[in-house]
Design goal:
With 477 residues, the protein is of the alpha/beta class. It has helices at 19-22, 35-42, 59-73, 84-87, 98-113, 129-135, 141-158, 173-180, 191-215, 240-263, 270-276, 285-293, 350-361, 392-410, 454-465; strands at residues 2-6, 12-16, 77-81, 88-90, 95-96, 117-123, 164-169, 223-229, 233-235, 298-302, 307-310, 329-330, 338-339, 344-345, 367-371, 415-421, 440-443, 449-452, 467-471. Bound molecules: 6-O-phosphono-beta-D-galactopyranose. The site of 6-O-phosphono-beta-D-galactopyranose (BGP) has 13 residues, from loops.
Length: 477
């Protein structure tokens, strides 16, 4: 049965990206590498076909073109990051790189001129490599202070034009891949360092919120938030053992950031649990008071796929470093629907389930979907005779996730909008250009030329009509 789904009033539709994944290194100065740049330089063999942040989509030279496409599609907003490692030349004293700042200022003007609201993230994995070398990055309390100084400069330069600021994109990711899982350069495992990074980023979110309030830039209508990749988790069964596995998974990957950002506090017993595992971080009562006093105005949530877990069947080896998986094992559910390219399950109801959680567990805080999308390999195979990629699979993916988003609003969740990842194809950590996510293709064979995909037209029509059609495919055959 085909239904027409109407978008709620004021529900925004946008697209996201980040500085390091799009801009490229043009004009980058000595000493301005981010952690991502350094990883790419030192360990290029793991980056798919050698592509990485060096050129990316060359957004730094081509943003006018990209914004003209956003205008054509009618996007309400564009989220990207300010690259901390490039915006400053001296991180201790927050000395601004005037060349990069001038580009950024022009870029923001172009965005607004095309009718698109800029949403700016202060760090999307772009911690300066110099700080990694000098003090271990976010392991150091000093980096929290430097981040606040950096944020204050950003508000000063762009705060009169940018209404929506975010501390981090996916604050849990870098340290989880590097220090917890030991999967990424520089291949140093340390679970306590992992927890210290988590904590310092939660603290920095509150400290920057505090700085924003004091900056004089938080005019009416402005909002400050952070963007959390919620790993929506489902237990295999409702047995106490499986439920406990899912609860701990949620605690260590989701509540770890949701709680301080929304409630202004970690849950009771959390620090004791960390202590029992020997990973309690250094903190002060003053820090906790700052977190308490500065919950964010709203949160952006990146939602891609569900995670399914069960209680542990196999014991953890004696002496192994702490890992949250001491409480769970992944559960490979029979019959699950997959995106075979990315290896992720597709389960659009994650949107609704998380929305209801926001409503019932998090005081119905305002939130939006900050990333959702479908990465597909070798998309050229879906090109039609006119040269346009016919990404109907992505359109279906959007429809199904948006269907649950609209239903969540109808059922009272304070969900304000939806952003797809990503506006154009771009480079991901290691996967580089392998899985394409864009509404707009980046043609690597031809000068990184831009071409709209069919999904861009779907977005354009949906925005113009404020509705989309949805195939309710629950018929038994
Ligand atoms: C999100 C990140 C993005 C982007 C996206 C797709 O989690 O915020 O930066 O990388 O994932 O990533 P991938 O290509 O690895 O599927």
């Amino acid at each position: 049965m085909t239904e027409t789904i109407y978008l709620p009033e004021d529900f925004f539709l946008g697209a996201a990206a980040s500085a390091w994944q799009t801009e490229g290194w043009k004009g980058k100065k000595e000493g301005q590498d981010s952690y991502m740049d350094a990883w790419y330089k030192e360990n290029r063999e793991v980056w798919h076909e050698g592509y990485g942040p060096a050129v990316a989509t060359d957004f730094i030279s081509r943003y006018e073109e990209d914004f003209s496409y956003m205008k054509e599609i009618g996007l309400n907003c564009y989220r990207t990051s300010l690259n901390w490692s490039r915006f400053l030349t001296d991180y201790e004293n927050a000395v601004v790189d005037e060349d990069y700042a001038a580009y950024y200022s022009r870029m923001i003007d172009a965005c607004i001129r095309n009718g698109v609201e800029p949403m700016i993230c202060l760090e999307h994995y772009e911690v300066p490599q110099v700080l990694m070398e000098r003090c271990g990055g976010w392991n150091s309390r000093h980096v929290v202070d430097l981040f606040v100084k950096y944020a204050a400069k950003a508000f000063e330069r762009f705060g009169s034009r940018v209404k929506y600021w975010f501390a981090f994109n996916e604050p849990v990711v870098v340290q989880t891949r590097v220090y917890l899982d030991g999967l990424r350069w520089p291949f140093h495992q340390d679970s306590k360092v992992w927890m210290q990074w988590n904590y310092h980023k939660a603290l920095a979110t509150a400290a920057v919120m505090d700085a924003y309030k004091k900056s004089g830039m938080r005019r009416s209508g402005c909002k400050f938030g952070t963007i959390i990749n919620v790993e929506t988790v489902y237990p295999r069964t409702d047995s106490a053992d499986d439920m406990n596995a899912a609860d701990k998974y949620d605690l260590f990957y989701n509540r770890l950031f949701l709680d301080p950002a929304i409630r202004g506090a970690y849950e009771d017993g959390f620090f004791e649990l960390l202590d029992r595992h020997g990973i309690l971080m250094e903190y002060t009562p003053g820090d906790l008071a700052l977190i308490k006093a500065n919950p964010t105005d709203w949160v952006g949530i990146n939602l891609y796929h569900p995670n399914r877990v069960k209680g542990r069947m196999n014991p953890i080896r004696e002496g192994a470093p702490f890992h949250p998986c001491c409480y769970y094992e992944e559960f490979d559910m029979p019959g699950k629907r997959m995106n075979p390219f990315r290896g992720w399950e597709i389960y659009p109801k994650i949107v609704y389930d998380f929305a209801m959680r926001m409503k019932h567990e998090y005081g119905n805080k305002e939130w939006f979907i900050a990333e959702n999308g479908m990465g597909v390999q070798n998309e050229g195979q879906y090109r039609d005779k006119q040269g346009m990629i016919q990404d109907d699979y992505r359109i279906d993916f959007f429809r199904q996730h948006l269907y649950w988003a609209v239903k969540a609003v109808e059922d009272g969740s304070n969900l304000k909008g939806y952003m797809n990842w990503a506006f154009t194809d771009n480079v991901s950590p290691m996967n580089a250009f392998k899985n394409r996510y864009g509404l707009v293709e980046i043609d690597l064979e031809h000068n990184r030329d831009r071409h709209l995909k069919k999904s861009a037209l779907f977005f354009r029509d949906m925005i113009a009509q404020r509705s989309f059609s949805y195939e309710n495919d629950t018929e038994y055959r």
